Amino acid sequence: MSKILYYSNLLKTGKISSSELTKIYLDRIEKLNPKLNAYIRVLPEYALAQASKCDEILSKDKSSSPLTGVPMALKDNLSVVGLHTTCCSKMLENFKSTFTASAVKKLFDKGAVMLGKTNLDEFAMGSYCNTGIFGPARNPYDLEKSPGGSSGGNASAVSAGIAPYTLGTDTGGSTRQPASYCGIVALKPTYGSVSRYGLLTLASSFDQIAPMTSTVTDCAIVYDAICGHDPDDMMTFKRKYEPTYSQLSGEVKRLRIGISDDFLSSSSEETIESVMKAVDFYVSKGAEIVKVKLPHIKYALPIYYILGCAEISSNFGRFDGIRYGYKTSLQYKDIDDMITKTRTEGLGKDIKRRIMLGIYFLSKQNYKEYFQKASMMRNELIRDFSNAFETCDLILSPTSPTSAVSLDFTPETIVEKYYADACVAPANLCGLPALALPCGIGQNGMPIGMQLMGPNFSEGTLLNAGYAFEKECKPELKPSIGVNYDL
Ligand code: GLN
C-alpha cells in the first residue's frame, strides 16, 4: 500500500494532523537514528513550522496534493535556502545554501514537510555511505552492513520507517544501488526530466535528482511532483509530462521485456535466481520475454569512471577557499599555496583521487587515449540500448550484483569497490530512466533488488511494470530495526 496515500488519507479525513504525524516521525528519528546514522541533521523546528502551515491548508482544502502535510527527508547535497548543505564534506561543513533546489521547491509548494538532511558519501562519490565526515550510515536489516551509497542515509531512513520518502541523487546509481541494499524503491528519471538546479553538482552530464520511497506508487507520486521544465536548468526538456500515477494499471500483457546475459553474468547466483523469478511472474501475466544484446555493457564502468572523473575534476575547481566553503587556517605564501592547503585539508581521499584522475584523463597527452575514447564508447553504449529498445519495451536486470556488503568491506582494489555500480551506471551513461525495486530475499535475510530500464521518458511504463510486480510479488522483507507503516 502506498505510504503517501495512506498518510494523506489520514490527514484529509482529520484522523491525524500534519503536526502530529511530524512529531511521530521526529520521535522515531530520536529513537532510531543514533543506531542508523541515516540523518546527519534533524530539523524539528523547521518541520513543525511547515507542518502547522499544512494543517491550516488541510483544514480549508481537502483537494490539495497527496504530499500535503506528509513528512520527508532530503539528501544533504540538495539546497534549501538558509540551511546547511554539507555534502558530508569538511569543505562545506559550515556552508549554508542561498537558494532552494527547484525540485525541492516543487515539493514544498505541494506541502511537503522536511524532517532533516540525510547521510551520504562525501560529495555523493561512493557506493557504501561510509566516506562522509559524519560517519557511516547503517543498514536497518543488519546494522553491521552498509546501506549502499551514496544515498545510503536516504535508503536507511525509508527502509527503517523514519522517513516516509526522500529525495536522493543518482549520478552513477546512487539511489538505485542503496535502494536494492535496503529493500526500497528508487526511480532514476530520464536525464533532463527533473531539474538539477540546487543539486550540488557531481558530474553534470549524469546527475539526476531521484525519489526514494517504500512503494512504486509513492515513487510515481513524487516523480510526478518534481519533473518538468525549469528555466534554471537548461538541460530540462520542454514537453508535456503525462502523470505516471495515472498509468499504474498493473496491466503488463504483451509488454516486451528484454533480458541480457551481458547484465546477468556479473551477478551472484541468488541475485540471478530472484531476477529470474520476476521474469516468470511477468510471463505468467502475459508479457513477452526477448533476449537482447548489449555488447558494450562490459565497458560501462570504465567509461563511467573516466568521464565521471573528468567532469568532477572540472566541477570541483570551484572549491578553492575563496568564494565559499572551507579555507585553510594555516599560513600561506601566495594564492596557489592557499588553494593547495585548502583543498588538501578540505577534501577527502576519494575526491582527490577522482580529481587527479580526471585531470590526467583530460591532459593534452592523454585526452585522446582516455576522454575521447570513453566518449566514443559512451555513444556505442547508447546505440546498444536504442537497438535493444527496437525489440523490447524495457530491460530487466539485477540492480546490484550482490546484496548488501558488510560495513568493514575492504576491497583489494578500487576497481572492486566500483563494481557495485556495474548494473546501475549504464542508465546514467545513456540518460535513460531506471526503476529499482525489491524482488527477493537473500540467504542471509538481506534484500535483493531488480532494475527496470526503458527508453527516454518511459517512466510511466517502468513504474507500471514495477507496480504490477509489487502488487503480487512484493517480498516479505522485515528490517531488524525500524517501524513499518503504522502509526
Ligand atoms: N557509486 C557511484 C560513484 O561513486 C555513484 C555516484 C552517484 O550516483 N552519486 O560515482
Characterization of this structure:
The mean pLDDT is 96. The chain is of the alpha/beta class. Strand 2, helix 4 and strand 3 form a beta-alpha-beta unit. An eleven-stranded mixed sheet has the order 1-3-2-4-6-5-10-11-9-7-8, sandwiched between helices. It contains 16 helices and eleven strands. The protein binds glutamine (GLN). Glutamine (GLN) is lined by residues 124-127, 150, 169-174, 202, 308, 421.
**Count of distinct structural domains:** 1
Distance between the termini: 14 Å
Q: What is the correct CATH architecture? A: Alpha-Beta Complex
Taking pLDDT < 50 over at least 5 consecutive residues as the criterion, the unreliable ranges are none
Percent strand: 5-15%
Helix content: 25-40%
**Category from helices, strands and their pairing:** alpha/beta
General shape: globular
Number of helices: 16
Computed Rg: 21 Å
Order of helices and strands: HHEHEHEHEHEEHEHHEHHHHEHHEEH
- Cross-sheet strand order for the largest sheet: 1-3-2-4-6-5-10-11-9-7-8
In the CATH hierarchy, what is the superfamily? Amidase signature (AS) domain
Describe the main β-sheet briefly: 11 strands, mixed
CATH level 3 topology? Amidase signature (AS) enzymes
- Give the rounded overall mean pLDDT: 96
CATH class: Alpha Beta
